């Protein structure tokens, strides 16, 4: 009887170990969606919203003329600069959200792409535009691919030309259509430079899956 009970316990523990990542992913996805719902329910006066968006646009103008450009968030020399967080006076606050219908993902976006930020959501990469849209802007959004308990950008390789993703801001929703998927090395950043008069957004993650010596880029252009 004791031997049978031991077998049942071992079997049950094995099932729990197998199911844990899936359960954890579901729970974290539920919590992230709750964060996004709370974000949509933030009460802000029209004047406060106008001031925030005007300040964000000023930040993007600064980024447009920034000579240092894009900073890779997954490299050995990861940048810890918070100048664009400081630009808005935001540190821990969620700034926007990304929705990818094809992957059934809704994830908070934070400013910056430090390890701490990427452990809890998607990060706006230093040197890229803040995710508010607009002419001559290019936001690069980084997310982990290999986290066992959170889906994040694990399956963005399933996005192809014509697929849609949304960036939800306090000022409205921006719609982007995927036009290219590309694999690059960390120093090959020419395709991430801001283009005059265009409104672009790229999803960036490590490649291949569970490795980080290359970068997978999903390029999108604003359609709305």
From TrEMBL:
The active site is at 144 (proton donor/acceptor), 206 (acyl-thioester intermediate). InterPro entries: Sortase, Sortase_C, Sortase_dom-sf. GO terms for molecular function: hydrolase activity. Gene3D superfamilies: Sortase. The chain crosses the membrane at residues 7-27. CDD domains: Sortase_C. It holds the Pfam family Sortase. The keyword Cytoplasm does not apply. Keywords: Hydrolase, Membrane, Transmembrane, Transmembrane helix. This is LPXTG-site transpeptidase (Sortase) family protein. It comes from Pseudogracilibacillus auburnensis.
């Amino acid at each position: 009887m004791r031997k049978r009970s031991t077998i049942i316990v071992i079997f049950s523990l094995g099932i729990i170990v197998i199911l844990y990542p899936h359960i954890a992913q579901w729970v974290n996805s539920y919590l992230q969606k709750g964060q996004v719902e709370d974000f949509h329910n933030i009460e802000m006066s029209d004047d406060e919203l106008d001031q925030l968006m005007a300040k964000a646009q000023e930040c993007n103008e600064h980024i447009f003329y920034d000579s240092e450009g894009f900073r890779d968030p997954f490299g050995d020399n990861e940048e810890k600069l918070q100048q664009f967080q400081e630009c808005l006076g935001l540190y821990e606050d969620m700034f926007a959200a990304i929705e990818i219908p094809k992957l059934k993902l809704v994830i908070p976006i934070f400013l910056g792409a430090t390890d701490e930020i990427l452990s809890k959501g998607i990060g706006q990469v230093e040197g890229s535009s803040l995710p508010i849209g607009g002419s001559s802007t290019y936001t690069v959004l980084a997310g982990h691919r290999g986290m066992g308990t959170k889906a994040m950008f694990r399956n963005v390789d399933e996005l192809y030309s014509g697929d849609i993703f949304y960036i939800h801001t306090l000022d409205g929703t921006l719609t982007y259509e995927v036009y290219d998927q590309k694999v690059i090395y960390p120093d090959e950043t020419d395709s991430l430079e801001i283009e005059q008069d265009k409104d672009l957004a790229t999803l960036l993650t490590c490649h291949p899956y569970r490795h980080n010596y290359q970068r997978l880029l999903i390029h999108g252009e604003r359609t709305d």
